[in-house]
Specification:
single chain, 254 residues, alpha/beta, four-stranded mixed sheet, 9 helices, 11 strands, 36% helix, elongated
Length: 254
């Protein structure tokens, strides 16, 4: 099973089956689980695609999930496909896809990585870049929190500096998020864009600050200095889409 990943929970397994971007090899289902709408759909889709379903004792699932939440179902699936920054940007430009990337430096919490992916899908971002050596892995927890976004949003595991170099060469502006930057409403975020989010706790590093086109901040009340990184990412993505006039048209996929 070393070449496979594990999905835990009804929503992640269902999203994987519905979106059909990677193969589901095997499903372990709690033999005592009551069949609700999601379980019924999972079983139906799995049978249609010839995926093996094993009804097992819940203790087996507990062991597979190592104590994590599984809601009575665990699946063996193909790993998420990873891109390089250069190959993804080349593909997007060749297909007239306007780059809207999120570069996240040092997301150490799995839930934050999953939440960033979920927001990226919701706001039509078409890449999330996370560094190779730092940050949370694309674990079962991160994939569960992403609510299916991991199936759709291209993921780049690469140095943020290397990704920024590729983007800059293609003329894609980048804005880092940090206190003291230009208030987001006064910065030009429309069009092709890369948002660079700093690490949890220490924020945007001085080295990254030197590489971006500009720095933006989120105005806050109540004496609050900062937001959780996944929340801040969602707020900035919203502002970018507002400037694009995205909401006036009811939203769209990039």
């Amino acid at each position: 099973m070393s070449a496979r990943e594990q999905l835990e929970g009804r929503n992640p397994v269902l999203e994987c089956l519905v979106r059909g971007k990677r193969e589901v090899h095997r499903i372990f289902l709690d033999q005592g689980a009551r069949t609700d709408a999601r379980i019924g759909r999972i079983v139906s889709l799995a049978k249609r695609r010839g995926v093996r379903i094993d009804r097992v004792d819940r203790r087996k699932l507990d062991k597979l999930a190592e104590g994590r939440v599984h809601n009575g179902i665990v699946a063996e699936v193909e790993p998420v496909a990873l891109w390089s920054a250069s190959s993804l940007l080349e593909y997007q430009l060749a297909h007239d896809i306007e780059p809207f990337w999120v570069l996240a430096d040092g997301l150490s919490y799995e839930h934050n990585l999953g939440a960033v992916l979920r927001s990226a899908l919701g706001f039509g971002a078409n890449a999330v870049v996370v560094p190779t050596r730092r940050g949370a892995p694309l674990s079962p927890v991160a994939q569960r929190v992403s609510m299916g976004a991991v199936e759709e949003v291209p993921i780049v595991r690469e140095s943020l500096f290397a990704a920024l170099k590729v983007l800059k060469k293609a003329g894609v502006p980048s804005y880092g998020a940090d206190m003291g930057g230009v208030p987001m409403g006064k910065a030009r975020l429309s069009g092709p864009l890369a948002l660079v989010m700093g690490a949890e706790g220490r924020g945007l590093s001085s080295k990254l600050r030197d590489k971006v086109t500009g720095v933006v901040s989120i105005p806050l009340a109540g004496g609050l200095e900062s937001l959780n990184v996944s929340v801040a990412t969602a707020v900035l993505m919203y502002e970018k889409r507002r400037q694009d006039g995205w909401f006036e048209g009811g939203g769209r996929r990039s």
